[in-house]
Known about the structure:
Blueprint: E1 8-11, H1 13-17, H2 26-37, E2 41-44, H3 50-59, E3 65-68, E4 73-76, E5 82-85, H4 90-103, E6 106-111, E7 114-117, H5 122-131, E8 135-137, H6 141-144, E9 152-156, H7 159-173, E10 178-183, E11 186-190, H8 196-207, E12 214-218, H9 224-229, E13 232-235, H10 241-246, E14 249-250, H11 258-267
Parallel strand pairs: 1-2, 1-12, 7-8, 12-13, 13-14
Antiparallel strand pairs: 3-4, 4-5, 6-7, 6-9, 9-11, 10-11
Helix pairs in contact: 2-11
Amino acid sequence: MPPLPYRLCAIDLDDTLLGPDHQISARNARAVAAAIAKGVTVVLASGRMHESTLIFARQLGLDTPVISYHGALVKHARTGEVWWHERLPGDLGAVVLDYCSEHSLHLNFYLNDHLYVAAYTPWIKLYHERTSSPFEVLPDFYVTLRGAAPTKLIIIDTPETTDRLLPYFQDLFADSLYITKSNVEYLEFTSPNVNKGRALEMVAHRFGFTAADTIAFGDSWNDVPMLQWAGLGVAVGNARPEVIAVADRVIGRSEEDGVGVALEEIFGLT
């Protein structure tokens, strides 16, 4: 058997491996299974919470760690072993919490892989429809969670609002928090030590792989560090322009099974 061109493959979920129906297509699933059968180590790398990423890892039968929350949590899909977990400092989380309270903004608060919200709003309805993530409406949300150290926070609002708030919070926190967008409506906050690239590097090194051994697929702003670290960074055709700009290769769109087609070609799958 000829040597594998890449030994580790990291794949983003939404708008990359998943189609518009938020599901894995049959062709993508077959291609992932065939790559694993050839000896490729496949990991999912998502901005989603672990619980809603794990669903797809199980569908694919992965026996590998899941990278979730943009890399804030790396937890094995089968054993549940935590390889890495980095939380936001509670005092900085409180600043975001207070801002959202004062400006009536919807906030997702992720604590111990549980999603809390202050109220059922159109924004959590949108988020739940996209991700199926379980959530809890918490009485006294702003009081109860103040000072807690979450894994991640998301402000969900119109693209115009999140675009306006992005530079505001980047200036406010400087290097104290990592602030990114995974979707036009989502403004996301994690520890400054967190991004998909760092998480993928840690996973690769634990397996004994290098960047040159690694291929990564993504579509959105939060995928940029991962695509830049991997030996081959691949953007789907529907990726954000900023992602396409840093990618080594651009493939078909997510709704065209772009990941599956690329895996078939790269690894010689039949």
